[in-house]
Amino acid sequence: MEDLKIMQKCQEGDIKLFWKIYDKYVDKLYHFVYLKTTNREISEDIISDVFMSALKNIDNFSINDNSSVKSWLYRIANNKVIDFYRTNKDEDTLEEYMDKWFEEDLSKKIDDKEKINSILEFLKSFKKEHRDVFIYRIWYDMSYNEVSEVTWLSVDNCKKIVSRTIKNISINFILILFFIFML
Question: Are residues 11 and 67 in the same domain?
Answer without folding.
Answer: yes
